[in-house]
Amino acid sequence: MTQVAPYGAWASDLPISLLTEGVVRLAEPRLDGDLVYWLEGRPAEGGISVLVRRWPDGATEDVSPLGVNVRTRVHEYGGGAYLAAGDLVVFSNFRDGRLYRARPGRSALPITPDEGAGRLRYADLELDAGRGRLIVVREDHRGEGEPLNAIAAVPLDGGPQTVLFDGTDFVSAPRLSPDGRRLAWLSWNHPNMPWDGMDLWVADVRGDGTLGSPRHVAGSQANWTTQPLWSPDGRLHFVDERTGWLNLYRRVGESDDSLAPAAAEFAWPEWQFAAHSYGFAGDGRVVAVVRRAGHDELWSIAAGGEHRRIDLDWTELGPIRVSGDRAVFTAAGATRFNSLVLLDLASGEADVLRTSSGATIDPATVSLPEPIEFPTAGGRTAHGLFYAPRNPRFRGPDGDRPPLIVTSHGGPTSAAFGGLSILTQLFTSRGFAVLDVDYGGSTGYGREYRKRLEGQWGVVDVDDCVNGALSLAERGLVDGHRLAIRGGSASGYTTLCAVTFRDAFRAGVSYFGIGDLVSFDQATHKFESRYTQSLVGPFPETIERWRERSPLNFADRIRCPVLILQGLDDRIVPPVQAEQIVAGLAANGVPHAYLAFEDEDHGFRRAENIIRSFEAELSFYGQVFGFTPADLIEPIELVRPTG
Hints:
Layout: E1 3-4, E2 25-32, E3 35-42, E4 48-54, E5 60-62, E6 82-85, E7 88-92, E8 99-103, E9 107-110, E10 120-128, E11 133-140, E12 148-155, E13 162-165, E14 170-176, E15 182-188, E16 199-204, E17 215-219, E18 225-230, E19 236-240, E20 247-252, E21 255-259, E22 278-280, E23 286-292, E24 295-301, E25 307-310, E26 316-323, E27 326-333, E28 336-344, E29 350-355, E30 370-376, E31 380-387, E32 394-395, E33 404-408, H1 422-428, E34 433-438, H2 447-450, H3 460-474, E35 483-488, H4 490-501, E36 507-511, H5 517-523, H6 531-535, H7 543-548, E37 562-567, H8 575-587, E38 592-597, H9 607-625
Helix pairs in contact: 3-4
């Protein structure tokens, strides 16, 4: 029989341990002949990323040495941390930043010099087999001031490296033509982020391996051009936003052909390297991940531009690699965990090689995302995914409405995730409603929607989160007096702004969020060090605006309880940000709690810390909203005002 219990206090069939038990993070899928490679982030092994290989008979094995973390810190977010081609497997070791060549028996041989931990970093590895080298993005931290980014050649025998291109603040995507005679790459300069605008270049590769004069192909300081790839017949393809949508183009002579033009996005923000959004099948077709209306599709595009949608059971697609008649990619759906999928392009048969969670969830327990649109500031419309509470064994008291947890993606230039999420289901199965807001500034809705956030960070995102919550309350779907907001990184900043500058929320939870824009900008890493200028305004000309948008400066306005969680090794949002906001909460008598975790950086990876964070958050909501969680968890102690 269905039991009546307060929302939030429902006994869930989904234990909190599912956050880490049998869970892996799947990333960087690759095809190499009949082999499939990928990275697995393993919370149970201290959060390290392990390089895994799958043989044609289905057997899998770990390739990287025991305990080695296959990651790179270029741009801090990394990506493109390994390369596999026949007998050659090269990977970046997170601990020292060096590149290693994998050897039999899970051993490895370094091929880059020992310059001290992290002083030379490598990413986005491209094989130049004919010259016995890798072409890479290299980030040099050996000097004073900002690190230097360059396209460099790294000999496979460990010889001296050669800088092929430098002089810009950033570079990415070195892509060698099939005949090895031309190299394409991207570059951009401060204060841009990649999606603000960057340039696509091509240069001839001389006989001695150096580059001829670069030729500009596409892009500008104000136009987003990305994802250069050469087709097997040597034609350069790329994605460009010149029409207001990120569409696919093919270079023909000195002009560009638009392939399958659509009000859709053929790429995603370059937070990480080597996250390909399309590839080439053996018959010349392009197989591309396309995002529109808040979800992903897989398209097959013929040489003439004719395209069709490939039917899949997944709505969230990640980076893809294509070779011959196969494609491998990560994918998730409303009832399916993120998975590694191998697709036979000829038959349409899709095999799931690995799932990010081994949990089996009763479909009756799963809360499905409802795409919603709602009015927001300025007469505009914003988007989000709404998850209603769902637990077949419980219902709330008559006349009661569930508390709502509003969340949003980080970045802030990114998009909401509509795949099956253990975290979301842990909340909804305990009686919470969840709203994941795709606020103005999100990708997947075209340039105009993304650019709403320019100069308006801390305003537009907050307006959309507030208005999304209020619209649900007005519809009678949630309790308007029990609204909470949570988020991490940029979403943590949105959370702190919402509880500081608005009065809609009764609780806030910030994971490594930004409290002070000025000190954050001065302390953060090179990649994002000017990001705030496009999001808020030029510095120091608009310094007062920066101060007015910094929650730390107005902690006395916060009236609701706040939970702060922070990794002490975070280089992107340093711990001082959390410590300052906690001091402000304490000074102003705001009920709060602070949890700091050793050996965690930007995004928690250790199983014990992931579990503790959720338990703390659940305990926090129980204390604020007046219910006792059904789980046996260690409560947190809120620091409360005295006197």
